[in-house]
Design goal:
Helix content is 39%, strand content 12%. Strand 11 and strand 12 form a beta hairpin. By secondary structure, the chain is of the alpha/beta class. The chain has a seven-stranded mixed β-sheet with strand order 2-10-9-8-7-3-4, with helices on both faces. The protein has a four-stranded antiparallel β-sheet with strand order 11-12-15-14, with helices on one face.
Length: 494
Amino acid sequence: MTFLQMCFLFQAIMSRQLQAHRTVGVCKNVLIEFTQLAADYKAVNLGQGFPDFSPPKFVQEAFCEAIIMSGRFHAHSTDRADKNVWLEFAQLAADYKAVNLGQGFPDFSPPKFAQEAFCEAVSGGHQMHQYTRAFGHPPLVNILAKFFSKIVGHEIDPFEDVLVTVGAYQALFCTFQALVDEGDEVIIVEPFFDCYQSMVKMARGKAVYVPLRPKVEGSTAPSSGDWVLSAEELAGKFTPRTKAIVINTPNNPLGKVYKTEELQMIADLCIKHDVLCVSDEVYEWLTYDGNKHVKIASLPGMWERTITIGSAGKTFSATGWKVGWAISSEQIIKHLKAVHQMSVFDCATAAQEAVARGFEREYELFGTPESYFQQLPAMLQQKRGKLASCLESVGLRPVVPEGGYFMIADISSVKADFNESMSAEDEPHDFRFVKWLIKEKSFFLQGLATIPVSVFYSPEHRKDFDKYIRFCFIKEDSTLDAAEDILRKLSQRQ
C-alpha cells in the first residue's frame, strides 16, 4: 500500500462516525484533566479526594490473605438481561456439590511470581491503595504497549491506544456501548461467548449471526480446526447497516485458532465495507500442536479498525483479579474511555501493578522455557490429552481444541433418564443433559458440572448444536480424575 493510499484509507475511516451518539460530548473530564496537570508538574496534591497514607495494617494483611467478593423501574435495555446461564449452572454445581468442569477458571493458584507481585504491590505504600490513572495504571499501559507493539507491528501509544478495564468483560461492554448505536448491525461468529449478544442488544444494536460449521455436514469433526467459516455465507451478512464484526480466537467454547488466511478473508470484508472488528483474544497464549495465534490487528489496513480485547485473568491464571484491556487506535479508544469514565472510572491499583510486573517478567523471558507463556500451554496440552482420552474411552466424541482451555463433546450416543423434576421438557437437549449429569444421584455418588453448548448459539442455530456439552480442563489432575470416575460409571450404565 502506497503512502497516498494509506492517507486516503485513514481519512475514510476517520470520516465515518465511529462512536455511538451516547458518548458524544463526554470525552472531557475535569478530574482527569487536573489529575494529569498535578502529575505533569509534580504539584503538592490537595486536589483529589483520597488519602496519601495506607489503610490500617489489618486491612492490608487481610487483603493479602483473601479477596472479598462481595411499577416498571428498569430501562428497556435490561430486558431479559437478568437471566444468566453461568449463574444458573454455577449455583446448580454448588447446590449439588458437583465436580465442576463447567466454569472457566483454574482450581489452582496463579504462578508464584504473580502472587508475590500482588502481595508486594499491596505492601508497596499508600499509592497502591488509592486511585491510579483512570484509563490504566502507567506501569501497566507502558508494558502492554511495549509488549504488543512488536507483535502487532505498530507502535502503540500507551496513553492513547490502551484502556485498562475491570476484566475483559468490561472492555467488551465499553466497546459496544461506545461504538454501537440503535439499529447498527453487529455480525457475531458462532459459537460465541453469550455476553456479546446481550451487550449488542443493550446498546440497541442488532445481532446478526454466522456459524462456524464442521467441514463435513452431519459429522463430528475430530479437531476444532475442522470447523470453518463459509466465505460466501459471511459476505452475505454484510449490509449498509453493518457496524462491526465480533470474532473470538482462540474460540470459546470450540477452541478454534483462526489461521492467517481465515483472518485475511474477514479483514478484506471489513475493509471493503468499512466495518470495525472486535477481536476477543483472551486465550491468546493458549495454543497447542504448533498452532500460532495471529492478531487480526496486525494485518494490513486493520490496526485502524480493530479493537483487541485482552485479559490478565486468562494470561496469569488469576481470573479474580479482574484486569483486562482494550487496544486500538486513539480515534477509537477515546470513545471507550468516555464509557469507562462514566461507569467504573478506575480499576484496582494493586492488581494493575501486579499484572504490570508479570508482563515485565514475561517480556524479558519471552520465547524461553522459563516463560509462563510457554509453561502454561505445555501443562494444559497434557490436561487436554487426559480429558480427550477419557471422553473417547467412555464413548463420547470430543472435538479436540487447537487453543483455549475448553473442549466440547458430542453426547448423542449417551442415554439419559430425564424427568420433570430435573428439567423442563421444552428445554434444549443439552440443557436437560447437563442438569441430569449434575443432579443424578441414583447412580453417581457425585454429579459432574459442564455447560450446554447451545447457549453459545443464536436461537436460529441453537437446535443444530444442542448435542454438545462443554468441559473445562484448566483444573487440577485430581479434579479431572474425579470427573473421569463419574464418566466411567456413566459408560457402564449404558
